[in-house]
Design brief:
The protein is α/β, with parallel strands linked by helices. 39% of the residues lie in helices and 16% in strands. The strands form 3 sheets. A 5-stranded parallel sheet has the order 3-9-8-4-5, sandwiched between helices.
Length: 262
């Protein structure tokens, strides 16, 4: 059979197999589990509750200006016309730019926790597509995509690193180099969920490093660091410091969601 005919045959078989599987196990909403048309998506009711972030936002951290507490000052670092939020003006961030697809709230939390802890990994492509919309300029400038790592014990228990799945999908979609092992979590840290901002920073201090064998992947390059949620920025700051120490020329950050301070 000619190569083109073989490819068409394989695509037909794949489509039939997918339809058969959907008939037995229909695709369900990644958040509420009602039946949906396509695997890895959310239903219309859950979709309308999600808070997608878009410009205008802080040039540095990506905080959207339409929310309370987002005072604007046109004094961006290296760009006199780039607006900064009050927080970044008073406490410049260690990264170059950060963007997020969603506001982290009750609606997005259930979706993210299902992806993170309930094996809903089929949603990775959909979530990565949302991130790509929010961080298109970061992806366009990136030389390499790197995920925030899990400690090996937590990775063994969870079986996958949700940040690495997102980072891989993002890199593949834009043809950017993806290196999952650049950063290493050198020690296990306590879960950050119920810690204060100060405690979070103490918890992750010194917890990350660039693997010596991986330095060549980032030296002199613009790195896009990928994580699931930006909360206080403690984990992000620790990873950015390690990447800069490892030779990265610049570090941008792209997350699926971020907490919106009010």
């Amino acid at each position: 059979m000619p190569a083109r005919g073989m490819l068409a045959h394989m695509q037909t078989v794949t489509m039939i197999a997918r339809r058969a599987l959907d008939a037995v196990l229909p695709p369900t909403c990644a958040k509420c589990r009602v039946v949906v048309e396509r695997n890895g998506t959310v239903c219309a009711d859950c979709w309308k509750d999600l808070r997608f972030l878009a410009p205008p936002w802080c040039h540095s951290c990506g905080f959207p200006f339409e929310f309370e507490g987002a005072e604007t000052v046109s004094q961006g670092r290296g760009n006199a016309d780039a607006p900064l939020c009050a927080d970044c003006l008073h406490k410049p961030k260690s990264f170059d730019r950060a963007r997020a697809a969603l506001g982290y709230d009750d609606a997005s939390r259930a979706l993210i926790l299902a992806f993170k802890h309930a094996d809903r990994t089929e949603t990775a492509m959909t979530l990565a597509n949302w991130m790509a919309l929010a961080g298109g300029d970061l992806l366009a400038a990136a030389d390499v995509v790197v995920p925030v790592p899990l400690h090996w014990r937590r990775l063994f228990l969870r079986r996958y690193n949700q940040s690495a799945l997102l980072a891989q999908k993002l890199a593949q979609s834009r043809g950017i180099a993806f290196h999952a092992l650049v950063l290493e979590r050198r020690r296990a840290t306590r879960p950050q969920g119920h810690l204060s901002g100060t405690a979070r920073h103490r918890n992750v201090a010194g917890a990350f490093r660039v693997r010596p064998s991986q330095r060549g992947q980032i030296e002199g390059r613009r790195v896009l660091l990928v994580d699931d949620v930006y909360t206080t920025g403690a984990t992000i700051a620790a990873c950015v410091a390690s990447l800069r120490a490892g030779g990265a020329a610049a570090v941008d950050v792209l997350t699926l969601a971020r907490v919106l301070r009010t």
